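Dear all,

This email documents one entry for the complex benchmark we are building for the journal club exercise. For each entry we list the sequence lines for every component of the assembly. Then comes the predicted three-dimensional structure of the complex as a token string, followed by one or two observations. Please use this as the template for your own entries, and keep the labels exactly as they appear.
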Amino acid sequence: MHLTADRISKRFGGLRALDEVSLEARTGEVTAVIGPNGAGKSTLLGCLAGMIPIDSGRILIDGAAARLRGPADLIPLGFTRTFQNIRLFEGLTAREHLDLARRSRERISGKGSAPDAMSLLRRVSLDDRAGALPAELSYGERRRLEIARGLATTPRLFLIDEPAAGATLSEQRAMADLIRSIAEDGIAVILVEHHMDLVARASKRVVVLNFGRVLTTGTIETIRQDPAVVAAYLGTTA
Amino acid sequence: MLIQQLINGVLASGIYALFAVGFTMIFGIMGVLNMAHADFGMVAAVAIIWCVGAGVAPLPAVVVAAVVMLLIALIVERTALRPGRRYSGDAAVEMPLIASIGAGMILQNGAAVIFGNKALVFPLRLRGFFHVGDYLVSQGLALSLVVSAVLLAGLEVLVSHTGFGRQVRAVAQNRNAAEIMGINTERIILLAFAISALLAGVAGCLVGVSYGLVAPYMSIPYAIKGLVAMIVGGVGSLPGAVIGALLIGLAEALTVNWLGSQLRDVGVFAVLMLVLAIRPAGIFRLAAVR
């Protein structure tokens, strides 16, 4: 899978949320999108997920234009996503979340096409919480369940929105390792995140957004030394 | 006399529970009140009367009535409720509420024009009584209670223990996330609506079976009791709707015993006010079908 966002623009009234933003995501790689609050990161993720209609630009999958008309198109295209504000089903147990996602995948690709729920729960260290409702899980566990739910749909592209919000340092590291392992399994990952340490641990390619525009793209090392990024992202004078 | 009234109250609660569960299911999944819900019961009952009157045998008449009622219910869903899903905020709630009141009035007045504004004799009535010790148990109401219990137990199994039920709960709890999981939310809403309409249809027919008469405007008191039972039990809770129905059935029976049948609804609304004062969110504090 090779996803290309080609000069995507989005306006909300007078606010230009995205201004000709381009980026690429490839199988086996984590493409991180960073930027200060209001830079347009979550809007970009919403556009890539078909949940926010774009005003102009194209989204290409392996060179062909993707037909993203709404959330219902995500699973057939092999896309999945998590949210900045976690969206779980409060009346369903952890296991039921994964069964639901597996069933959706199997409706499209046939029986046996989705991974076993318990193996996914083990992967995100929730195998002993299979019968727990979201309200009984810690914040970090809820984040991991949302990721496991996405994995249960056997995605080709995983859009992950601020997975370390509210996490401790050790949880951030574990999350970075989990995200890297997802990419290593042959999934293209686009990661929106604030925490630079997590980004550095999980991703080699970073896109920096500011005021809806791509400020720069590069490795975490080059990004960290870019005076414009430091000024925009850290709010300091370079 | 008191025990006889309590028996009557428990027996009557079966029909109230069927209406209440339908109301709460639709509210839990769609976030709207379908004020035409109880009218589907009237439509099913008068459709059976019409079929049997035309010479159709009872069993095929029930099937034809179910099909007619489902078609009418789906038209109401498409025309009165579905347009509201294009909006958010107050409009998404108020538009279907008002539109479904209108749909209910059309169904009631339509039935009155076709069949006359009068009570109609239901052909499949059960008018006998069982003698249990010193007490009488209406055969029709006993059948209603058994049918209601079986249907509601089946619904509980469907919602709590099947893949379809998981999808229903997911749509009720977060429609947006359910769509991302690949659930066809419109299909789930339509199926859940059809199930709730069928429950109302069965309830309407059980009114005819139990009391022997149905009428174009019969749905109004049942709509009120179904709504009260839903609120008392906790909006969106299936077990809550059943408990709410039982409470108002008993309250109604006790009021009849103490104050006479003219004031039977006083007890129903007293329970409503009491519960709202003590537990404003209802006995089962839930906001979604579970």
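Observations: DSSP finds eleven helices and four strands in chain B. The radius of gyration of chain B is 19 Å.
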